[in-house]
Specification:
The complex is a heterodimer of chains A (145) and B (643). Chain A has helices at residues 14-27, 39-46, 72-81, 99-107, 120-137, and strands at residues 6-10, 32-36, 60-63, 90-94, 112-115. Chain A has a 5-stranded parallel β-sheet. In chain A, helix 1 (14-27) packs across helix 5 and helix 2 (39-46) packs parallel to helix 3 (72-81). Chain A is an alpha/beta fold and 145 residues long. Chain A is 41% helix and 16% strand. Chain B has 643 residues and is α+β, with helices and mostly antiparallel strands. Chain B has 5 domains: 13-145, 3-Layer(aba) Sandwich (Rossmann fold), CATH 3.40.50.2300; 163-268, Beta-Lactamase (2-Layer Sandwich); 283-384, PAS domain (Beta-Lactamase); 390-474; 483-632, Histidine kinase-like ATPase, C-terminal domain (Heat Shock Protein 90, 2-Layer Sandwich), CATH 3.30.565. In chain B, 45% of the residues lie in helices and 24% in strands. Chain B has 19 helices and 22 strands. In chain B, strand 4 (96-100), helix 5 and strand 5 form a beta-alpha-beta unit. The two termini of chain B are 116 Å apart. Mean pLDDT of chain B is 84; it is low at 1-14 and 639-643. Classes of the chains: A alpha/beta (145), B alpha+beta (643). The interface between A and B is medium-sized, with 13 and 14 residues.
């Protein structure tokens, strides 16, 4: 029996988080979604600090770049610097189409870069693709002990 | 000289007159008598020769020309008239003295009429020496007179060679003119003789001038002066004249001789000098000269105007009075250059006026040389450029201001593009929310609310979508200004062929035919060129009429540019709109007629502009359009970065 997939969405826009939840509700009803709104919170969640002491380690992180307090690239860099968190696949999900953002993300170890589509249907299908690939096709690293 | 060695002989020679005589005498006794008369009684040291025949006479005459010939003259003898004839034939002017008996006296008188010098009766030989002496004296007088006449003629001819000569009688009637007079006056001798000098009067001189001349010469004095005359052909000539009256024993002039020299060239030069001087004087520029010590010695009206000193105030003063103290060195440098023979041209400096005001001047200073090339001073032309300098300063300020504004404009342009980019980028975020949620609303609640709600949601959703497209277009437009042009060799044929794929669906849907000429390989940014041709071609398909679109792409070199053309058979454009269509977001049609935001041509124009080209359209409604644009054959590579 497949265990429940854990997904962390880091995005300061509740509208996007809601859209992502809407999309996944349809295509991946068994997935558990957590969300935080800035980079500091994201790292606290991942390191199970403060109010996130009991947080569950995510299987996949969907990370926006334009975040308050600590930006997405800083969060990504911090994750890839730690021996434990570096194994968690990170999908950069941003409206930025700047080549330098894309390049920097991959340099810092992002697993994939997806532009946020402006159109609802495209947004839904992008989320669906992510879910299908990462929770379907791909084999994720084993949960750390 | 050894005169002391031979005093006696010299004395005896000196005491006797040397005389060479040729005796024509057939009677030896008579010859002896005649010689004796000369030597003993006459005191002549006479060398003699006696001849008897005409042949002997002629030969002896040539061999040793004598001082005198003495010929026996007797009736019926050849010796007489024939001797005279032979002397004439030989053109020898030797006194011939006939010695005759009483019988021949009458004939001898005839001979004298014919040219013999004198005669002596044989029985009166004692008078022979006196007769000979008189004959010799007459001969010598005759020769002297002849020499004097020849010298006079030569003098006359020498004067004629040099001068214009005329003589008039006491009434001023011309009695003689030389060739030079004829040559300069262009009248013939016949035309001049019998006239007065009024014939060459040019009307230039006053009545007083001629009156003064007339008074001078009629009173027997010499007159000198320059006269301006008119030749027969109307041309003017100047002569320096000397008129000499020839007076009679009572001091009254009987004739006048005028000797003149042509000074027309000098007068012309003088006139030119005066003309030049008047030009110099009337010049607005200060034209002054200074000697080698820097003392001013000429000062024109322009100098008075510019520097404020009158000529009498300036001349004799050191030129330093015009030079501000802090520029005193300048004059030293300038004079050093002048002494080396160099000029100083258009040297801009500052000088001081009489009223102590400083003025900007441009000076040109050149050495003045004397006739042997020695530098004796300098001429100085100074122009007041104060007004120009003020103007230049104003222009410089304006230029700086302009440069600053251009810089500002460039910066604000760049800011604007940055702003457009950032704004459109940041606008996308909230707009994405609006678009996504209106769409979600529509999907989730369609038919669950009332009809109006569906309609309203539809409008909101469509508006959001259109705004998204607008923002994307704006982003694309602003990106044209930001992207750096990358030049390479671009085969335009390949670019157009590529369009057939890029526009594949539009071509297929419309049935368009895209053809092209044999296009060149040019130096360009491939992406930018592709975008221009793609936008133009897409428009040609989009704005088609009822017939199948036929599009033809051509290119030819026009001077330093490639000129591209994209010709279609579409709906065409009315002339009043051909300018507007290149402005961003300008549309000629409603969205229902032709979709789009009016960004395509604006992007084309921006790309072409940034590459230093031009874009325009030639079109008539209903008969298709031809869009033309140019790109430089040699683009300014590396200059196409973000503005």
């Amino acid at each position: 029996m497949k265990s429940v997939r854990q997904l962390l969405i880091v995005d300061d826009n509740p509208g996007d988080v809601t859209l992502a939840r809407e999309a996944l509700q349809v295509c991946a009803p068994g997935c558990e979604i957590n969300s935080v709104q800035d980079g500091v919170e994201a790292l606290a969640f991942l390191n199970r600090r403060d109010q996130y002491a009991n947080a569950i380690r995510p299987d996949l992180v969907i990370l926006d770049l334009n975040l308050p307090k600590r930006g997405g690239l800083a969060v990504l860099a911090a994750m890839k610097a730690g021996p434990d968190l570096r194994r968690i696949p990170v999908i950069i999900f941003s409206t930025s189409q700047l080549g330098q953002d894309v390049a920097r993300s991959y340099e810092l170890g992002a697993n994939c870069y997806v532009c946020k589509p402006g159109n609802l249907n495209e947004f839904f299908s992008a989320m669906k693709s992510i879910e299908q690939f990462w929770f379907g096709s791909a084999t994720l690293p084993p949960r750390g002990e | 000289m050894s005169s002391a060695a031979t005093p006696a002989r010299s004395l005896s020679d000196a005491s006797k007159e040397a005389l060479k005589v040729l005796l024509v005498e057939d009677n030896a006794a008579d010859a002896e008598l005649i010689l004796r008369a000369l030597q003993r009684d006459g005191g002549f040291a006479a060398g003699s020769k006696v001849v008897c025949t005409p042949e002997e006479f002629r030969a002896q005459l040539k061999a040793a020309p004598p001082d005198a010939v003495l010929a026996d003259y007797d009736l019926g003898s050849w010796l007489g008239m024939e001797t005279l004839e032979i002397l004439r034939e030989e053109e020898m002017e030797i006194p011939l003295i006939l010695v005759s008996g009483t019988v021949g006296e009458m004939r001898a008188v005839d001979c004298i009429k014919e040219g013999a010098t004198d005669y002596v009766l044989k029985d009166r030989l004692v008078s022979l020496p006196a007769v000979v002496r008189r004959a010799l004296l007459e001969k010598s007088l005759r020769e002297r007179q002849k020499n004097a006449e020849a010298a006079l003629l030569q003098q006359q001819s020498a004067v004629d060679q040099h001068a214009i000569v005329a003589t008039t009688d006491a009434h001023g009637i011309i009695t003689y003119v030389n060739d030079k007079f004829c040559a300069i006056s262009k009248y013939s001798r016949e035309e001049l003789l019998g006239q007065t000098h009024r014939i060459v009067n040019s009307g230039y001189h006053s009545q007083e001038f001629f009156q003064q001349m007339y008074n001078t010469i009629t009173s027997g004095r010499v007159w000198n002066g320059d006269i301006r005359n008119r030749a027969k052909d109307g041309s003017i000539y100047w002569v320096a004249s000397t008129i000499v009256p020839f007076v009679d024993s009572r001091g009254k002039p009987t004739q006048y001789m005028a000797i003149r020299t042509d000074i027309t060239a000098n007068k012309r030069a003088e006139e030119a000098r005066e003309h030049l001087a008047s030009i110099v004087d009337s010049s607005d520029d200060a034209i002054i000269s200074k000697d080698a010590n820097g003392t001013i010695n000429a000062w024109n009206r322009g100098a008075i105007k510019i520097f404020g000193y009158s000529a009498s105030e300036a001349v004799g003063q050191p030129v330093q009075m015009l030079i501000p103290p802090d520029r005193a060195d300048e004059e030293t440098d300038i004079m050093a250059r002048i002494r080396r023979g160099e000029s100083v041209e258009h040297y801009e400096t500052i000088r001081v006026r009489k009223d102590s005001k400083s003025i900007d001047v441009s000076v040109t200073i050149s050495p003045i040389k004397d006739s042997v090339g020695k530098i004796v001073g300098a001429s100085k032309i100074a122009r007041d450029i104060t007004a120009r300098k003020v103007n230049e300063k104003r222009l410089a300020v304006q230029a700086r201001e302009l440069a600053r504004k251009i810089d500002e404009l460039a910066r604000s342009n760049a800011d604007l593009e940055q702003f457009a980019y950032v704004a459109s980028h940041d606008l996308q975020e909230p707009l994405r929310m609006v678009a996504a949620y209106t769409q979600l609303l529509a999907e989730r609640y369609k038919g669950k609310l009332d009809e109006n709600a569906d309609k309203f949601i539809g409008y909101a959703s469509e508006g959001a979508h259109r705004m998204q497209v607008l923002i994307l277009d704006l982003l694309a437009f602003s990106r044209v200004g930001r992207a750096e042009a990358k030049y390479s060799s671009v085969d335009c044929n390949a670019v157009v062929e590529g369009l057939k794929q890029d526009l594949g669906s539009a071509i297929a849907e419309s049935g368009a035919v895209l053809a092209h000429a044999d296009l060149p390989v040019i130096r360009a940014d491939r992406l930018q060129l592709t975008q221009v041709l793609q936008n133009l071609t897409a428009n040609a398909i989009k704005f088609r009429g009822n017939q199948k679109p036929e599009i033809f792409v051509g290119a030819e070199q026009a001077g330093e540019n490639w000129q591209f053309s994209v010709k279609d058979n579409g709906i065409g454009i009315a002339p009043e709109f051909v300018e507007n269509i290149f402005v961003v977001f300008q549309r000629l049609h409603t969205r229902t007629e032709y979709p789009g935001n009016g960004i395509g041509l604006a992007i084309c124009k921006k790309i072409v502009d940034r590459n230093g080209g031009k874009i325009w359209v030639e079109s008539q409604p209903g008969s298709g359009s031809t869009f033309k644009f140019t790109l430089p054959v040699k683009p300014h590579e590396g200059n196409g970065g973000p503005a």
